[in-house]
């Protein structure tokens, strides 16, 4: 209900706490940027509940099996966006990052929504990611709802705050790592060894 009313909701994921809104709601998307004090040229990822739904919002040029080897999980896959996606979401790029968190609540929430969620970390831009709801209590007044899923991972471990590994798969046969994140080694292993993708020279 909070999301459908255009609200911003703090949510637990499999990596760090996030703030979500309906990606197809342009006003809500603008609210996320103002909440975070985020540079308008930094893209938001979309969050879905299942791999099947990804085909509606993205042009996929990798095997379905590759998507299922990495998703759900702590990885954001960057693909070419389809016409279905809100034009006001990341209007400056033809690509979009897709998250399917390996977190039962997040997957159920995403499945319950009519379209994708826009998802970003629950923190002020350039500050550290958050692993408990208390760590972002400065944002609470601007949120419609805060879902407390308890501490995520080990709050003492810097690795736990890295967020998802972001990998660009928009160029056929290649991959490039945009953010190493918390799952770099296993992700690269799958892309190179199992699927023979080659790293794009940066």
Automatic annotation (TrEMBL):
Catalyzes what?
L-threonine + hydrogencarbonate + ATP = L-threonylcarbamoyladenylate + diphosphate + H2O
EC code = 2.7.7.87
Under the heading SUPFAM superfamilies, the entry gives: YrdC/RibB
The cross-references to InterPro entries, in alphabetical order and at most eight, read: DHBP_synth_RibB-like_a/b_dom (IPR017945), Sua5-like_dom (IPR006070), TC-AMP_synthase_SUA5 (IPR050156)
Key words, A-Z: Cell membrane, Cytoplasm, Membrane, Mitochondrion, Transferase, Transit peptide
Superkingdom:
Eukaryota
- Looking at the UniProt record for this protein, which Gene Ontology cellular component terms does it annotate, in alphabetical order? mitochondrion; plasma membrane
Q: Please tell me where this protein is predominantly located.
A: membrane
The chain positions of domain YrdC-like read 1-183
Which GO terms of type biological process are on file?
regulation of translational fidelity
GO molecular function terms here? double-stranded RNA binding; L-threonylcarbamoyladenylate synthase; tRNA binding
The listed locations are: Cell membrane; Cytoplasm; Mitochondrion
Top enzyme category: transferase
Topology with respect to the bilayer: Peripheral membrane protein
Which family does the similarity line name? Belongs to the SUA5 family.
Q: Which NCBIfam families does this entry report, sorted A to Z?
A: L-threonylcarbamoyladenylate synthase
Q: How does it assemble?
A: Interacts with RSC1A1.
Q: What does this protein do?
A: Cytoplasmic and mitochondrial threonylcarbamoyl-AMP synthase required for the formation of a threonylcarbamoyl group on adenosine at position 37 (t(6)A37) in tRNAs that read codons beginning with adenine. Catalyzes the conversion of L-threonine, HCO(3)(-)/CO(2) and ATP to give threonylcarbamoyl-AMP (TC-AMP) as the acyladenylate intermediate, with the release of diphosphate. Participates in t(6)A37 formation in cytoplasmic and mitochondrial tRNAs. May regulate the activity of some transporters.
The molecule here is called Threonylcarbamoyl-AMP synthase
Q: Which organism is it from?
A: Leucopsar rothschildi
């Amino acid at each position: 209900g909070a999301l459908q009313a255009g609200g911003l909701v703090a949510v637990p994921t499999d990596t760090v706490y996030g703030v979500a809104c309906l990606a197809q709601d342009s006003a809500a998307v603008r609210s996320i940027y103002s909440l975070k004090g985020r540079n308008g040229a930094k893209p938001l990822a979309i969050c879905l509940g299942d791999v099947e739904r990804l085909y509606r919002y993205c042009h996929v040029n990798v095997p379905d099996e590759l998507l299922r080897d990495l998703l759900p999980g702590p990885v954001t896959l960057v693909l070419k966006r389809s016409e279905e996606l809100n034009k006001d979401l990341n209007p400056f790029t033809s690509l979009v990052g897709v998250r399917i968190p390996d977190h039962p609540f997040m997957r159920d929430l995403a499945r319950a929504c009519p379209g994708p969620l826009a998802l970003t970390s629950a923190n002020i831009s350039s500050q550290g990611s958050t692993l408990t709801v208390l760590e972002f209590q400065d944002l609470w007044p601007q949120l419609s709802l805060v879902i407390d899923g308890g501490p995520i991972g080990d709050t003492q471990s810097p690795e736990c705050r890295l967020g998802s590994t972001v990998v660009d798969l928009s160029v056929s046969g290649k991959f490039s790592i945009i953010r190493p994140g918390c799952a770099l080694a296993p992700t690269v292993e799958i892309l190179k060894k199992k699927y023979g993708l080659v790293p794009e020279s940066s």
